[in-house]
Design brief:
Elements (H helix, E strand, L loop, with lengths): L2 H5 L2 H7 L26 E3 L2 E7 L3 E2 L11 H14 L5 E7 L2 E6 L1 H9 L4 E7 L3 H13 L6 H13 L5 H8 L3 H10 L4 H8 L5 H8 L4 H14 L3 H13 L14 H14 L4 E4 L5 E4 L5 H11 L2
Helix pairs in contact: 3-4, 5-6, 6-8, 7-8, 10-12
Family: Belongs to the ParB family.
Pfam families: HTH_ParB, ParB_C, ParB_N
GO biological process, one term: chromosome segregation
Length: 308
């Protein structure tokens, strides 16, 4: 990690770690040898102590916000570790005399195992569960390869589980409040759109434009238009403005007495048709199913799903 990259971690992580634990990393912690892939003897530098810990003594972090690890990228990192060693030590906390828990560096740990290392260099910290969560979240938020939904989930966890206000969260991760707010708003979008952001089908810019539309049916329709027509962010913003100029239909309230079974059926239909389906059944078991249609293409899509 370069000096520039390290400083970009912001105040939050540094404030959580003891001062004698966070300075420049020695770049020759682990130089590979011709005969072995295991680590050399422990190294101590001016920044503090770095220990070499057996990989089978390290438990993963239960608070790890990251769930998706690119196998190809892990393989490339593994090959790099075989040649160059681990440049940046992991961060662990000691659970007992014979076991440690990962605070940050799960990607490096996985790649080290692939490389055949039996030991890895690590800083040893003292941290309670809340500090563990905050350290792990901040360390992961600063990564460049996290998708927007992973970042949003991490932000939300820091609000819900660490108890930070949005201003405090912004200070921790060196981002202004509006940026934090924009990420958190992504989690208010329908699951199918969140999945599209996560999988790279639409960008953060597309999502920010969609969020400005309050109606879920219209959000889903715009999302489908982006996918089908490969719309640019600017085109989506224009589409959102045009929709905003149209008269909003009066929203019908769902019956408050809908049973759990009928609600489950309604949700299943909404999921199947990719739009908000309304199921209206009276006390005699009679009623109707309403499927909103926003365009001719949307109608054709629904007819195909029905089999017409």
């Amino acid at each position: 990690m370069s000096a520039i990259k390290k400083s970009a971690l912001g105040k939050g992580l540094g404030a959580l770690l003891a001062e004698n634990d966070t300075t420049e990393i020695h770049e020759n912690l682990h130089k590979p040898t011709a005969n072995t892939a295991t680590a050399p003897a422990p190294v101590v530098n001016a920044a503090g102590s770095v220990s070499f810990i057996p990989v089978d003594k390290i438990d993963t972090n239960p608070f790890q916000p990251r769930t998706d690890f690119d196998e190809l990228a892990l393989g490339e990192l593994s090959e790099s570790i075989k040649l160059q060693g681990i440049i940046q030590p992991l961060t662990l906390r000691k659970l007992n005399d014979d076991q440690y828990q990962l605070i940050s560096g799960e990607r490096r740990l996985r790649a080290s195992k692939l490389a055949g290392l039996t030991e890895v260099p690590a800083y040893i910290r003292t941290a309670n569960d809340q500090e563990m969560l905050e350290m792990g979240l901040i360390e992961n938020i600063q990564r460049e390869d996290l998708n927007a939904i992973e970042i949003a989930i991490s932000f939300q966890r820091m609000v819900d589980e660490v108890g930070l206000k949005q201003e405090e969260l912004g200070e921790r991760v060196s981002k202004n409040r509006s940026t934090v707010t924009n990420y958190l708003r992504l989690l208010k979008l329908p699951p199918v759109i969140q999945a599209g952001i996560r999988d790279g089908r639409i960008s953060m810019g597309h999502a920010r434009a969609i969020i400005n539309v309050g109606d879920i049916d219209k959000q889903l329709w715009i999302y489908r238009q982006i996918i089908e027509k490969e719309l640019s962010v600017r085109k989506v913003e224009e589409l959102v403005r045009d929709l905003g100029k149209k008269t909003e239909p009066v929203e019908r309230k769902e019956p408050t007495t809908m049973s759990f079974h009928l609600k489950k059926v309604q949700d299943g239909l909404s999921s199947r048709f990719g739009t908000k389906v309304a199921l209206r059944i009276d006390d005699n078991g009679k009623g109707k199913i309403e499927i909103p249609v926003l365009s001719t293409n949307d109608l054709n899509r629904i007819l195909e799903l029905i089999g017409e």
